[in-house]
Each structure stands twice: as C-alpha cells, then as structure tokens.
C-alpha cells in the first residue's frame, strides 16, 4: 500500500507542469513573432548613424523627442481620421448588422457573404479602384463637371473626406461582424418579453437590443479604430500632401529616407498612443457590465 | 408583505368597471401556421377552441406536447393572430391589438429574463414603460420582491440566481403590473420535481393573494389537478373536456381524457339491455354490458343509447374492489388473473388480466380495509358501484378536417 503515494508523488510535478506545457506553443509563437521583433525595433530606435556608414547602438533617446516634435501633427491626424472612420463604420455598420440579424430571414448567410466579398480582392486594388472612381475627371466627377453641375476644379481625392471614406469602406466589415454576432445572440424571446411588458419598438430597441449588443459595438470599435489609425494605404492612394498619416511617415522614413532609428521610434510612438487611447476607451466604456454581458 | 395592496384592482388604463361575463373568451378560435412548407397541410395547430375563463379563476390548459396549448396561450397574449374565431379579453375584441397594448402578461417557459438588468430592474420594466411614478415603482417592486421572497436578491443579475429563483423573478416581473390576467406557459417545466412541488403551492398561494385570473399551461396532469379551479383537456388542437379537476378525473368525457389523466381502465362492448335501474341505484336508468360467462358491467345509461349500440366505459383503479367470489345482484363483475402486484406504500397496485384479454389496474389501500389481498397468479373477481362506471363520448374525428373555407389539399 505504500506504492501508490510514491507513484503519485512522482507524477505530481508533471501534472503541475502540464498546463504550462500546453500553452508553450503560444508563448513560443509570441516570443518569435512579437517579442523578438519588438526588441529588435526597440534596439533599432535607440541607435544612431546613417545607412551608408551603418547604425551603432548608442542608446540615444533623443530620436523620440525629435520624431514627436516633427510629426505630432500627423500622429494626431491619424487618430482623428481613425476615429472619424470608426464613427462612420458604426453609423453605417450597426443598421446593416441589425438588418441582417433581424430582417434578412433565411438569407442571412448570403448577405454576410456579400459583406465579405470585397475581401477576396486585394486591399490595395480595392483602394486603387476608389481612386479611379473618384478621380478628378473620372466616372463620377467627369460627367457632373461636363454638365456644369460642379465647378471645374472640384475634387474629392486628396481631401480628408476621401481618406476617411476609404478607411470606413475598408474597415466596415470589422465593425459589422462583431455587432452582428452580438445581435444574433439576442434571444428573440427577450423581444417578446419586452413587448409583453408594454415596450413598443423604440423602447424594445433602446432598453433591450442596444444594451445587449454593446459588447459587439465595443469589439467592433477596437477592431476598426486600431488598424484604421495605423493605416497608410488609404492616405497614400486617396490622399494628398495635407492628409498624410503617421503610417505614411513611417513608410517614407523606412523605405525612402532609410532612417531606421527614426522610423522605429515613430512606430513605438504610434503603438504607445494607440495603447493609451484603447486603455482610456476601455476604462470609459468597457465597464464590468459590458464585459459581463459579453461573457454570458 | 401586504396582500391587500396586491389585490388592489388594476389601474384605470382599462375599463374602470368590471364588465360582467368571463375574463377571457375564446370563440371558435383557429390557428393554422399555414403551408409555408409543403406538406404542412396536416391540419391546424388549434382547430376551433371555445373557452370561457372566469374572473379570478385558476384555469389550466392540459394536454400532451404539440396539442396546441402554447399556441392558444400566445394568441391570448397577442404574439400570434388567430386564423379564425375571436378572442375577447374582458369583453373587448382583441383582434389586431399588439401584445404591448393587452392587459395580460405572459410568464415564459424559459423565463426570458433580461440578462443585462438586475432583478429589481427586470421587475420594474413593465411599470417604467407605463410611466408609473418613480416612488411608486420602487414601492411596488419592493413589495413584489417580498411576495416572491427575493427581496435580498434585488441587485443580482438573473444569471446569478438558481432556476427556482429565476422562475420567481419571471413571475414577479409579470405580476407587479397587476394585469387582469396572467398567462403561464409551463412555468415550472424546467425545475426539478421537489422544487416544482413547492413552487406549485407557492403559485397557488400567490394567485389567491393577488386574486387575478391565471391561465396555466401544463402537460403534467398531477400539476393541473392539484392547482386548478378548472381544467381544459386539449388534444390535437381541440378541447376534449372542460371541468373542475374532480370532474375531469372521475368522469372523463372521452377515452383520451380518461387515458391522459391518471390511470384508467377502459372496457368496451355492446349494450345488452336498457332496463330500468330498479336495483341499487334507484331512480337512475342503467344499462348492462354483457361480457359473457356471468361477467357484466353495469353503467348509468348514456343518453339516447339503444340496446346493441357500442359503448366504452371507464372506471378508475381506486374504485374497484377485489373479491374471491363473484358478487351477486345488478353490479359490475369481471373475473381476471392477477399478473402483477406493486407495493406503493399506502396502497398496492394490481394488474389484472381479464378473460377477454383486457388489462385492468386496481388500487387498494394498505390500511387493512381490503377484503382480499391476492398474489400473482390468483384468480379474482373485480367489482365496483354502478356510479363509478363512466360511459365515454365517442371520440371526435381524429382526422383533421380542412376548414370549411380552406382550399382542399390538392
Ligand atoms: N411558429 C410555428 N410555426 C409552425 N408550426 C408551429 C409553430 N408553433 C407551433 N407549431 C405547431 O403547432 C402545433 C402545436 O404546437 P404548440 O402550441 O407549441 O403545442 P404545445 O404547447 O401544446 O406543446 C405543433 O404541431 C407545432 O409543431
Ligand atoms: Mg408548449
């Protein structure tokens, strides 16, 4: 009878380690594809030198201050454009998600597929096609100008509207899908219960449907705002000199100016700014309630 | 808790004076979900139901799954429009009136509590929609939570409550509005047996306290029998019998009712003679089913029955007594062999196979009053008083007839 305890004792360390072993692949993945690149970038941002003579690690923190001083306009603009695009996505995406969830009946999956259909075309090509559509004398503006309905120098491209519109167009599905999932999960019996308790359509939406969909809105805003703020394709293709976003600056620093430390420092500045924005947003809206309902 | 305030008449958003007549009337109500799928023409969910439910009554709709109970209830609540017939709530025709404008509340089988609201906010939901003043909402919610014994759980979320507690929140959420009638769709269906039994008593107590009409849907005959003032037994979209529990149990009108409620014995044969009941049951006309070999069933004569017409008779197991020798006189007597004896504590159940092959169930109390306590294989004589033989009405057409104005199915 003394054997089983001994055996158990031998087995215990393995059993205790098992959970860690199981998440090990995840940690390895993170280490290889997130932690290591971040460390490399961090080290790069603290180097000095130039492309011809090479860069040397000097722990020069001043690059951050210089980058911020030079490009804070573009950084703020990126957050504004990203925020504006997110608001557009929410205003358009929520009704779309609502309609698919409650009104599309048997054809839900068809509409969801249509929503995702543009993803089968490259991001750049989709954006480039807007460039063609909105061109100063293109298919839309050309005829209108020809008919004298618009002044000859009217343009959409190179304005903030074009960039924000492009961002909203490209990231709309990131808003619609999480909102749709949240709405889809609302038990239809709850709508009947609300009606039974004297709630009309507006009250049923405001008191039951909307609160229950907030976790989806919360996720959708994050999924839209973060990539939209960091985007550079839309500003590059649809924008002009006055609509440059921080992503474009980073790209130029890297590939045109070959200023690796400056580009790396800007990347960290962008990452830090977004983390702070997301943190403030989560503090303000991601209350326990929202997450509690989400976890249901 | 203050029952008198709970029992206060509903606020005057409906007719101020209670009109005479039933609280809820269903007149030839039909619901056909329609042939949106081909082949769905096998009849309507509800095929012509007439009901009058009285003010303050505890009224049950009892029947097997799929017989149309939920459909009937949802039509009263306003979630389904009847295809035919009329529904009157306190004399007002309800056709086309949406659920949020009907003075009834529904307790859903799944409770359908709002997961994002606290217990108190769930209960206050209906009052807020009616723009009841804040202070009054607070008082009424508080009092209602006391009534259902959940005052200490007011700030919890539904998810943090047990099934029985959620059930009581659902009840409170409906009752706090003081509806003219409360509709309950198998409200105890999701609870385990023990909790269900205590909730049955609880529901009955609350109903007595608030004094409003309860329409209670269940497929559990014991539940219906213990709680109801009256029961409507439904089958295949039709009401087969309406009556108080004792009547439905002891005098089932149809073979279906007899079989669905309790254990019942059904004997069939042809009426031998329609002689006058000069025997024990003086005054009542009785008939005899001759089963041959000295066996017979004596029954109160059904109206318009002539000699030779086929009849079905039911008798409840606890009305039958067992004896070793055939009783004499004009009483029912059948010979059989005991096939099974089951000891049930206060009583024993005997399965007896008759000479004609029918299996009959007999309950005898174990209190020492039984004349005979046979064992398996024994031959016994079964007898019962004529008053306990109930002739059954012929079953209503089981084949769903298409409505008069419905197009004939191809
Ligand atoms: N929404 C619906 N659409 C089509 N058929 C339905 C619908 N609801 C119920 N039915 C059918 O109507 C019949 C009665 O259903 P129901 O009223 O739910 O019965 P019960 O509540 O007595 O179990 C069933 O045959 C069911 O399949
Ligand atoms: Mg049902």
Describe the structure.
The complex is a heterodimer of chains A (296) and B (410). Chain A is mainly alpha-helical. Chain A has 12 helices and 2 strands. Chain A folds into 2 domains: 1-45, no CATH class; 63-295, MetI-like (MetI-like fold, Orthogonal Bundle), CATH 1.10.3720.10. Chain A has helices at residues 3-45, 62-102, 108-116, 123-133, 141-146, 160-184, 188-196, 201-230, 233-238, 246-255, 260-285, 288-295, and strands at 47-50, 54-57. In chain A, strand 1 (47-50) and strand 2 form a beta hairpin. In chain A, helix 7 crosses helix 8. Chain A starts with a helix and ends with a helix. By secondary structure, chain B is α+β, with helices and mostly antiparallel strands. Chain B contains 9 helices and 20 strands. In chain B, a hairpin with a 4-residue loop joins strand 17 and strand 18 (359-365). Chain B is elongated, with a radius of gyration of 25 Å. Chains A and B meet through helix 7, helix 8 and helix 12 of A and helix 3 of B. The complex binds adenosine-5'-diphosphate (ADP) and magnesium ion (MG). Adenosine-5'-diphosphate is lined by residues 33, 45, 63, 65-71 of chain B. Chain B: It is an enzyme of class 7 (translocase). Chain B: Pfam families: ABC_tran, TOBE_2.
By DSSP, the count of extended strands of chain B is 20
Rounded radius of gyration of chain A (Å): 25 Å
The rounded distance between the terminal residues' Cα atoms of chain A is: 47 Å
The percentage helix of chain A is over 70%
The helix tally of chain A amounts to: 12
H/E order of the elements of chain B?
Answer: HEEEHEEEHHHEHEHEEHHEEEEEEEEEE
Write the layout of secondary structure elements.
The complex is a heterodimer of chains A (296) and B (410).
Chain A: H1 3-45, E1 47-50, E2 54-57, H2 62-102, H3 108-116, H4 123-133, H5 141-146, H6 160-184, H7 188-196, H8 201-230, H9 233-238, H10 246-255, H11 260-285, H12 288-295
Antiparallel strand pairs in A: 1-2
Helix pairs in contact in A: 1-11, 2-6, 2-8, 2-11, 6-8, 7-8, 8-11, 8-12, 10-11
Chain B: H1 3-6, E1 24-31, E2 46-53, E3 58-62, H2 69-77, E4 84-89, E5 92-93, E6 104-107, H3 119-129, H4 134-147, H5 163-175, E7 181-185, H6 193-210, E8 213-218, H7 221-227, E9 230-235, E10 238-243, H8 245-250, H9 255-260, E11 265-273, E12 286-292, E13 295-300, E14 310-315, E15 321-323, E16 332-343, E17 347-354, E18 359-365, E19 379-384, E20 390-391
Parallel strand pairs in B: 3-8, 3-9, 6-7, 7-8
Antiparallel strand pairs in B: 1-2, 1-4, 4-5, 9-10, 11-12, 11-14, 12-13, 14-20, 15-19, 16-17, 16-19, 17-18
Helix pairs in contact in B: 3-4, 3-5
The structure holds adenosine-5'-diphosphate (ADP) and magnesium ion.
């Amino acid at each position: 009878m003394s054997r089983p305890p001994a055996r158990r004792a031998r087995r215990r360390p393995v059993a205790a380690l098992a959970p860690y072993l199981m998440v090990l692949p995840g940690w390895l993945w993170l280490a290889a594809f997130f932690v290591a690149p971040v460390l490399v970038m961090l080290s790069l941002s603290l180097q000095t030198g130039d492309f011809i003579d090479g860069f040397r690690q000097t722990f020069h923190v001043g690059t951050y201050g210089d980058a911020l001083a030079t490009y804070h306009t573009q950084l703020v603009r990126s957050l504004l454009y990203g925020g504006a695009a997110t608001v557009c996505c929410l205003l358009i995406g929520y009704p779309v998600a609502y309609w698919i969830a409650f009104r599309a009946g048997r054809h839900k999956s068809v509409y969801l597929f249509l929503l995702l259909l543009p993803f089968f075309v490259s991001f750049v090509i989709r954006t480039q096609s807007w460039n063609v559509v909105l061109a100063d004398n293109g298919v839309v503006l050309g005829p209108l100008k020809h008919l004298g309905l618009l002044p000859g120098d009217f343009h959409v491209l190179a304005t903030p509207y074009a960039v924000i519109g492009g961002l909203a167009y490209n990231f709309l599905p990131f808003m619609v899908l999480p909102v749709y999932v949240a709405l889809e999960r609302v038990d239809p019996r709850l709508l009947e219960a609300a009606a039974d308790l004297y709630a009309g359509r507006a009250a049923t939406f405001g008191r039951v449907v909307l609160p229950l969909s907030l976790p989806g809105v919360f996720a959708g805003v994050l999924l839209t705002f973060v990539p939209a703020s960091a985007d550079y394709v839309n500003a590059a293709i649809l924008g002009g000199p006055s609509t440059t976003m921080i992503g474009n600056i980073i790209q130029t620093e890297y590939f045109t100016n070959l200023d690796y430390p400056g580009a790396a420092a800007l990347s960290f500045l962008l990452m830090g700014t977004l983390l702070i924005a997301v943190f403030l947003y989560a503090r303000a809206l991601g209350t326990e309630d929202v997450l509690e309902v989400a976890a249901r | 808790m203050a029952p008198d305030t709970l029992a206060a008449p509903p606020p005057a958003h409906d007719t101020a004076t209670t009109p005479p007549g039933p609280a809820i009337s269903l007149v030839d109500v039909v619901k056909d979900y329609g042939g949106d799928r081909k082949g769905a023409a096998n009849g309507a969910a509800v095929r012509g139901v007439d009901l009058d439910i009285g003010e303050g009554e505890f009224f049950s709709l009892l029947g097997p799954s799929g017989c149309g109970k939920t459909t009937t209830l949802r039509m009263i609540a306003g979630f389904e429009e009847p295809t035919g017939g009329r529904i009157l709530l306190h004399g007002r025709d309800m056709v086309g009136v949406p659920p949020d404008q009907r003075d009834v509340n529904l307790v859903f089988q799944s409770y359908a509590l709002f997961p994002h609201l606290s217990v108190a906010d769930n209960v206050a939901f209906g009052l807020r929609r009616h723009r009841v003043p804040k202070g009054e909402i607070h008082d009424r919610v508080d009092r209602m939570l006391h009534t259902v014994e959940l005052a200490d759980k007011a700030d919890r979320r539904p998810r943090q409550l047990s099934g029985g507690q959620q059930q009581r929140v659902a009840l409170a959420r409906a009752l706090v509005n003081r509806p003219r009638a409360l509709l309950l769709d198998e409200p105890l269906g999701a609870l385990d047996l023990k909790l269900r039994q205590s909730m049955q008593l609880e529901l009955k107590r609350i109903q007595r306290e608030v004094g409003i009409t309860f329409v209670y849907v269940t497929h559990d005959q014991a539940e219906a029998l213990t709680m109801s003032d009256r029961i409507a037994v439904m089958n295949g979209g039709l009401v087969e019998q309406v009556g108080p529990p004792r009547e439905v149990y002891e005098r089932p009108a149809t073979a279906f009712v007899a079989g669905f409620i309790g254990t019942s014995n059904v004997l069939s044969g042809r009426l031998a003679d329609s002689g006058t009941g000069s025997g024990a049951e003086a005054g009542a006309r009785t008939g005899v089913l001759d089963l041959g070999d000295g066996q017979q069933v004596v029954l109160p004569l059904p109206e318009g029955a002539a000699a030779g017409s086929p009849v079905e008779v039911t008798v409840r197991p606890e009305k039958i007594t067992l004896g070793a020798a055939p009783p004499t006189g004009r009483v029912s007597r059948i010979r059989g062999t005991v096939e099974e004896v089951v000891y049930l504590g206060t009583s024993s159940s005997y399965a007896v196979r008759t000479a004609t092959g029918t299996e009959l169930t007999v309950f005898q109390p174990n209190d020492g009053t039984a004349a005979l306590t046979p064992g398996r294989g024994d031959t016994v004589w079964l007898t019962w008083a004529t008053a306990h033989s109930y002739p059954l009405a012929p079953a209503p057409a089981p084949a769903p007839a298409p409505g008069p104005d419905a197009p004939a199915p191809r």
